[in-house]
């Protein structure tokens, strides 16, 4: 995987087939969370997510909560993506949700679908025009919010702890250590996916901000 | 409740209807500093320095007031922030 780099008016990242398939899959899962099964139902028999799908299935089983009906406000992942507009005033929160939730879901689902379609194309390069980079960065945020909810990341300290766990686990893999680290492998896998998306998003932001600085000069 | 208290309470409610509202953005462990800065710069039309200062306020103090105005206007701003995946709330100014 290579992070986004600017090439003219386009940001380009390089992902191999498996990386693309895994990311396309989590994007589709978040789309389904917000839009039900209508999301990512391609016409025909093509399986754009490729052969890594089988392997990924096991891992994504832990995300079973994602398949719950969309009108499930009790799901903490939905609450992260469509949060309450008031901490303590029910009337304000309910009114806001009534007025905005439909539009917000549509906005987010459309962005996720665009990203999923890009990831489902053939080839190693993921191209995002700088005009669309903020929308893509926002879609990546929604995916990361859902993963963060599944990983229980509520505070900056939780995020630090996750990074430490992953460092420990990858070090153990590198050194072929077999002792039980007390780290849940599924959690490590999801955490690594979260980190990879964070890294991609950060690189996309750098392309976007550098592009705008150059425009200003 | 005495009549005097009742009148005072109604007076307070009447004044509050005219109060300004605020949009508050809250810290979260997910959103990147660069992303939050960029969103603030784009949506609230701030300079890079102003946007960075607001982002730091959110990160270090846990929250920042991003805009002030009528309730409907604040609902628009909060909706925009939620669109970007930032956690924003609205409330009456001074609460």
Walk me through what this model shows:
The complex is a heterodimer of chains A (217) and B (95). Chain A is mainly α and 217 residues long. Chain A has one domain. Chain A has helices spanning 17-35, 53-60, 76-81, 90-119, 133-150, 156-174, 185-216; strands at 2-7, 10-14, 125-129. A three-stranded antiparallel sheet of chain A has the order 1-2-3, covered by helices on one side. In chain A, strand 1 (2-7) and strand 2 form a beta hairpin. The radius of gyration of chain A is 18 Å and the shape is globular. The two termini of chain A are 32 Å apart. Chain B has 95 residues and is of the alpha+beta class. Helices cover 56% and strands 19% of the residues of chain B. Chain B has helices spanning 3-17, 33-43, 48-61, 71-83, and strands at 21-26, 63-69, 88-92. Chain B has a three-stranded antiparallel sheet. In chain B, helix 2 (33-43) packs across helix 3 (48-61). The two termini of chain B are 24 Å apart. Classes of the chains: A mainly alpha (217), B alpha+beta (95). Chain A binds chain B through residues 80-87, 89, 92, 96, 99-100, 103-104, 107-108, 134, 137-138, 141-142, 144-145, 148, 153-156, 158-159, 198, 201-202, 205-206, 208-209, and chain B through 27, 29-32, 34-35, 38-39, 42, 75, 78-79, 82-85, 87-91.
